[in-house]
Amino acid sequence: RKRRNFNKQATEVLNEYFYSHLSNPYPSEEAKEELAKKCGITVSQVSNWFGNKRIRYKKNIGKFQEEANLYAVKTAVDAANVSAQASQANSPATPNSGGYPAPCYTPDGRL
């Protein structure tokens, strides 16, 4: 049988889960079912992917550290964006909230 890689989106979803649960990269059966649905693959494929990923990660942790950092940054940026959107939605309008920044003055009072 010919070997095929998962599509980029499926790999992205699996990697995101793996690196966000790096302290315990063993998804529950429910999580595996959810990941399988999201990726359009079977639960056994998800299990095999995680088994292989854990082995490869442990063998070459230095190489994968950069990948882990990229996913950590992505997760932090996503969380910051969600937080910023929520605070914008909940904050009352201020007198200068017309979408323009407040004018900046120099120390001598000029714009």
UniProtKB/TrEMBL annotation:
Residues 1-60 form the Homeobox domain. Its main location: nucleus. Residues 3-61 bind DNA. Keywords: DNA-binding, Homeobox, Nucleus. It is found in: Nucleus. The keyword RNA-binding does not apply. This is Pre-B-cell leukemia transcription factor 1. The gene is PBX1_4.
